[in-house]
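Posting for a labmate who doesn't have an account.
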Amino acid sequence: FVSIIASLAFVGIEISQNTSAVRGATNQAISDQISELLLSIAENKDLAILVTKLYADVSRNEFDPVDEMRLRMLMYTGLRRVENIYLQLEDGILDARAFDRIGMGFYKSKYGRETWELIKEDFDKDFVPFFNEVLNNNK
């Protein structure tokens, strides 16, 4: 009986440590993703110029079609990352602090809001109202 209890306690400790390791790895992956996205902008002058315009509250229709598509794909990539964080939060893998590292200004810009309205139907049905609330409540 004592060995069964000890085995169960050991398994419980191992599961707890594994859960912590998964959370740590997931948080690291989020940091790696944002770093990769930021570095791609920093290393590409054309993307940096586009993002500068985005932060200047330029509308989607003020970009030429190729630049608009490049920026839209950049926005889409970032939104997929935010959606992934949301889904992992819902699954209990992450906590809400994961959203602190996202940089919402990118999405709250005029261009970001216009693009979100254009592509939001491509995202998880539960994520859409969550992200609409984030955009509208200045969280």
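Reply:
Got it, the structure tokens are right above this. The two ends are 52 Å apart (CA to CA).
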